[in-house]
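Ticket #4471: structure export looks truncated?
Reporter: QA, pipeline team
Priority: medium

Steps to reproduce: submit the single chain below to the structure queue and open the exported record.
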Amino acid sequence: MNKILALCLGVCLQLMVNVSLAQTSSPFVGTWKLNVAKSDLGSEPPPKESTITISKDTADLFSMHGEGEDSKGNRWSWAWDGPPDGKMHPFKGSSGQQSVRKEGRVLIRHAEFSDGSSFDARATVSADGNTAVEETTWKSKDGKETKSKSVVDRVSTKVAN
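Actual output as written to the record:
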């Protein structure tokens, strides 16, 4: 009986380790801070602060939220949870929706907002996993396109639950 119990505990422990490793092996999970000096935000004034945290990256759920302070001192935040299936899912507490899909170390996002504006973005995580570059094409409600390049540095791979 003790051998069976020990075997079951060993299998359970291995499964927990495997699940933990699968979650942390994502190149996206962690907290990322905008590096204004390396970014090209076009004609827009840079924010005083901008941080994105990706807390889940599984086949069924990709969870991310952002927060910061714009150039005028106004605080902002957003959150999005959904499967990384390339289909539109709503932002939490916002009038927009976003699709997310992954291609290796590249995160591809498309968002549409109730005012008619939208964006398409491709974020590529560096080989060492410490930096990501997101190239974004923004489209205003009147159809005007602007491009930006955001460089973010990983602050932490640990995410509070």
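Status: closed, not a bug. The export was complete when the record was re-opened. Leaving a note from the reviewer for reference: Residues 31 and 53 are 4 Å apart (CA to CA).
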